[in-house]
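User: For a reading group we're discussing how well predicted structures match intuition. Take Peptide ABC transporter permease. Before you show the prediction, I'll give you the sequence so everyone sees exactly what went in.
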Amino acid sequence: MLAYFLRRLFFMIPLLLGITLISFAVIHLTPGSPTDIYTQFNPKVSPEFRQRLIKLYSLDKPLYIQYWMWLKKLAHLDFGRSFAPDARPVWDKIKERLPITVGINVLAMFFIFIIAIPLGVMAAVRHNRFFDKITTIFVFIGYATPGFWLALLLMMLFGIKLGWLPLSGLKSLNYESMSILEKSGDIAKHLILPVFVSAFGGLAGLSRFVRSSMLEVIRQDYVLTARAKGLPERVVIYKHALKNALLPVVTILGLSVPGLIGGSVIFESIFAIPGMGQLFYLSVMSRDYPTIMGCLVIGAVLTLLGNLLADISYALVDPRIRVG
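Assistant: Thanks. Here is the predicted 3D structure of Peptide ABC transporter permease, as structure tokens, for the group to look at:
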């Protein structure tokens, strides 16, 4: 098992380098420049000042030299300084926002698993019956609904029309004057809509996956044997069938991470949540290359760690994976 873990860990290094190389090239080859924010609409800016900015940001050097300079800094865990007017270290910006994004995604994943697994099991047990058809419709709605559209719809309904939930941010204006209990309730109210939007698509997909896996397992001979022995249906389903049906679901844990992190850019921007997704969006809009690369590296590392966790979990439950 240790050799398998080290092998998987080693393969992550070239993969991460490949991700950073492609991302760096794509970002720098897109139209626009970080200097535009200072010079494009300011007639007082001289061409000499623009050239000094380009030299200050090392944008006058060939792309491969810029990448090598960035990579050497990354080797010392230095993400550089932001091109934004505050010129703060990129890592300081990320570490302020990373816990918010990770916290929302962990909450979303928690709700996805505790709702989707029972939903998928019940749909499989009631195959082709009314409940199964209702969940199938729910799944199609979940697949077809764009996250940004759902977010705007919920904001109009619960935030504007009914006034039950706050529209944006993580805290109310009078947050500092609240008691600890009120502060917890205030943050929870602000998180309801973002977490729901983040979990909705994954909930539909995972429940469908669990349903398919359960349908395959409950047709196996050992499940028929358990029923023939006269075991109660609850024991057959939840003790014998579900345990084996959940093995493929382990891989979903790792595969869900990229989608959730990518979705953070949408719902954090719409709900004005000061997380890493919003930071990434603002950085792209201002061509803040160091911050964009910092967000991409953190996102890639989280994704690779999620995949590693899924591989290790799967290897623990199925020894053939370790041998292969």
